[in-house]
Amino acid sequence: MGSADAGENVAGETPDLSETIETDEVTVTETGELERTLGLSGGLAIGIGTMIGAGIFVFPGLAGAEVGTAATASFAVGGVIALLVALPTSELATAMPKSGGGYYFVSRGLGTLAGTIVGLSLWLGLVFATAFYLVGLGFYALDGLAEAGVAIAVSEGLLVSVLAVIAGIGFTVLNVTGTENAAKLQNGIVALLLSMLVAFLAFGLAESFGFVDTGTPAAEARDTWEVVPIMSVAALVFTSYLGFAQVATVAGEMKRPGRNLPLAMIGSVLIVTTMYVLTIFVATSVFDRAALAAAGETAMVEIGRQLLGTAGALVIIAGGLLATMSSANASILSTSRAIYGVSKDALLPSWAARINLKYGTPHVALGMAGGPVIVLAATPSGRPARGGRFLSPPDHVRADLCRTDRDPSRRTGVVRSRFPGSGRPDYPRSRGAG
Amino acid sequence: MTRVLVPVAVLDGETVSAGLMELLSTMDVTVLGYHVLPEQTPPDQARSQFGDRATAALDDLSEEFRNAGGAADHRLVFTQNRDQSIDRVAEEVGASALGISGTTGDVEQLLVSLTGDVDVGQIAAFTVDLIGDREIAVTLFAAGDDAGDGRLGTAAETLDAAGIETETRLGDGPAFDALIDAVSDHDGIVMGEPAASLSSFLFGSEAERVASASVGPVLVVREDDQGESSE
Known about the structure:
- The complex is a heterodimer.
- By secondary structure, chain A is mainly α.
- Helices cover about 65% and strands about 0% of the residues of chain A.
- Chain A has one domain (about 40-395): Amino acid/polyamine transporter I (Up-down Bundle).
- The longest helix of chain A has about 45 residues, at about 300-345.
- Chain B is an alpha/beta fold.
- Chain B has 2 domains: about 5-95, Rossmann fold (3-Layer(aba) Sandwich), CATH 3.40.50.620; about 110-220, HUPs (Rossmann fold).
- Chain B has a 9-stranded mixed sheet with strand order 3-2-1-4-9-8-5-6-7, sandwiched between helices.
- The termini of chain B are close together.
- The interface of A and B includes residues 37, 179, 344 and 353 of A.
- Chain B: InterPro entries: UspA.
């Protein structure tokens, strides 16, 4: 592991291991200072934005069809587990507040081989996940067209692929050209989405408790309040909580990382859990299991229609578009950070991290994120994207692997930096000594 | 000694005019090389690619400042927020003022603007330190509602006591336009740090607009937040 210092790749490039001093405002390196500019709201937007697109409008239908209102418990269980993962992850990120996230922890904790595997699978996993979001975006756009009464002459699958590819190219170009305010756009999308959701859920809750009556059919199929089905649905919906760890990929740019990183990770998990639980509650109050099963993945659109008519359906479709957009955009950004982390350690050629002179962006890394995404999105079925979730080592595995470090001297490194903000993290330094 | 921070977008080919170097020969100078990055780019990535080149440029610049007279060092920062970085470094090095480079050569006529909610005593003291024993004439300027409260007289006394050739001038009409009018027959400007306003949000900071209207260097005297000495 320590041999990384002497290692070089086929091009003779060695890892860039300059010593750094971290403060709340800046990272001081030998050649310059790196300003920390991202606040708590920016971190929350990345965490929430990445998570919420994954399942808020897809899983309620699927999970509700399995166990009915008991799916609220499944989402709550998923949230608690995500929280248990978020705690050690935020601790690691606080100890090593560097851009690169999961890759950085694993390569420093378990060595170069594990780091390489995780770094590359992080890249692939994010690529698949982004393609999944884009295909979801295509489906929402399709629903939107249908709702607007536009007749579709070509096959659905083709149109979805075309829309997904256009969106993928759009996001990649947006990021490569270094469009200003893309992060503000991200914050805006998340804020708009949250306020739409809150309004929708408030109305849905009022309906569920009988303050408003829109004539929803009385439930006939019974809810399944049993441990095993609830847990198995929790396992299904847990994937919709992955994403908070992406906050760690911008750890190097976050102000007061000792405070803001844990707050952003844990806060985004709590907010998203609340949203999910309320959404599933509204969904299962409006429709029973049989109706949810019949409506399938787009059940939420039907629920919106049931509650508020066509306007309700449009709100859900617009929300779905926003949610998938924010997730896709956040993932493309995270991917290029992950590629940079790997390239910095000379595990990828240094040109992978080169910065475009005209736009000041890492165009190769962004292209390595966007290119495969577009290819995947173009595959006719669009379904392979689903598998991406399994290619990416789940974040809890990554985070916890670090904690089972076998070398005692390294372990003390983690323990010493247990306390967020207790001083500058010295853990990464121990790598050279080991 | 009084310290001035000179921010330079070092990788965008920005440099420092001979006029500013000459004007600051009585001061300690910290050259702050900065490079603004889009949020798509981790600052560390830019550092590893551009750090050496930027450092070489900053070494040259601070060498030129030393040759002009004062002590000079440099800092290099990669940032996604220029103003935040400038504020932080100015605070850390205890800079009394920020320098914005113009294009002119020697400064013989210095315009000192006292308009706005600024610390008149602090600006006057800075001007005295800046000029030292050089033959630079000063025009004290105020416009708008601020002109009537005797601040010109107070500052003029300070400068006269230091043996600096001083005249005072009152501007008419809107304060900012009057300042721009007065800039034309001077080749350097000292001004306060006006509080952020809507127009500074829309059009950039007042200092930047003055700098773009002037060919000479602009020195912006920083507010002393806690009333402690910023030296």
